[in-house]
Amino acid sequence: KKKKRFKRLFEVVCFCFWCVCVCLLEMSERNGELGVWCSGDREKMAHAATFQKMPRDEDDCVKGKICRALFVKSKVEKEDLGKIWQMVDVRKRGKLNESEFFAAMCLITSKMRGIDVPESIPPELEQFLVHANVKKENNQAEDKQEDGKGEEQEQEHEHEQEQDHVMKNGNETAEAEAEVVAPSLPDVPKVAATKYVSMFAKKDANKTGLLSASTIHAMLAGAKLADATLRSIWVLSDMDGDNKLSAGEFVIAMHLTAFVAVNKGKAVLPPSLPLAVITLANETTLNYNNKLEKDREDERAKVEAEAEEKRKAEEDERIQQKQEEEEEEAAEKRTC
């Protein structure tokens, strides 16, 4: 019997070890070369799009003040932001190029997911920074060589280009005046966010903190948007890719739907969500889930209190019944 038990225990341990290995392998394949510091391709695209929107100097870098204004919106503690800056500002220039900015965003979003800021730059990000900077320097050197070779040709055609520019200037000006600038996605107003959370709570009848894709589709169908637009809204809203929406993700979906509906024919959905919107979504989900947990604790406390009150009432009734029986026995003895 002992041998059989030991064999069964050994099989269970081997199976658990195999499951852990499979999970780690899937995580490594999903995260790629950046490990836990980047959740996947969607986050990479979001950080790259954010950098492209930032104003940059002649060195294609974002200045420190501009970076700080963005980073503080994450509500990560200033001490952690300072550590992150010291790690990613490799050249101590007070500004960040694209790869350094990407590394900073990875560390900030990781902190928002609950991963502590390391004391030194992680090996994955350090290797990424080295490769990116070397590649950029090589590209700049090649560009300078190409510029030197083409300088003479440019001087020869300079006069012709100036004439073409003068002739096309009028048409370009007219096109620029006629062009309608697509409105950018604004932050979620607090009043609207509160309204969306209330809508979410009404649909969350089981109090799970999640709504299924079919439920969300039925709610968004009233906006009468194109299927392609609804799919884009879903992809942007379902940040963790679990095919369900939490309270914060639902706020994003409703905000994007309202943005497209109000600006009919003009609104263009962004390729990635702004950091302020992501932060609001994470806070909304956390607050909603904390409220659900508090409601569950209150309900448990209420049930326990009712059970305790019922137990006391039954105990009092039992004691009173026993006293009555004792009094009856005493009365019979006196009668006898």
Describe this structure in words.
- With 336 residues, this protein is mainly alpha-helical.
- Helices cover 72% and strands 2% of the residues.
- The strands form 2 sheets. A two-stranded antiparallel sheet has the order 1-2. A two-stranded antiparallel sheet has the order 3-4.
- It is elongated.
- The relative contact order is 0.07.
Topology record:
Elements: H1 2-31, H2 41-53, E1 62-63, H3 64-71, H4 78-88, E2 95-96, H5 98-112, H6 123-178, H7 190-203, E3 211-212, H8 213-220, H9 227-237, E4 244-245, H10 247-262, H11 275-335
Antiparallel strand pairs: 1-2, 3-4
Question: Which structural traits does this protein have?
Answer:
two-stranded antiparallel sheet, about 325 residues, about 70% helix, mainly alpha, single chain
Offer a quick outline of the entry.
The chain has 336 residues and is mostly helical. It has 11 helices and 4 strands. It starts with a helix and ends with a helix.
Determine the N-to-C terminus distance.
Answer: 69 Å
Low-confidence stretches: 27-32, 165-181
Alpha-beta content class: mainly alpha
In DSSP terms (H or I, runs of 4 or more residues), the helix count works out at 11
Rg, Å, rounded: 32 Å
What is the overall pLDDT average? 77
H/E topology pattern: HHEHHEHHHEHHEHH
Could you tell me the strand content as a percent range?
under 5%
The strand line-up of the biggest sheet is 1-2
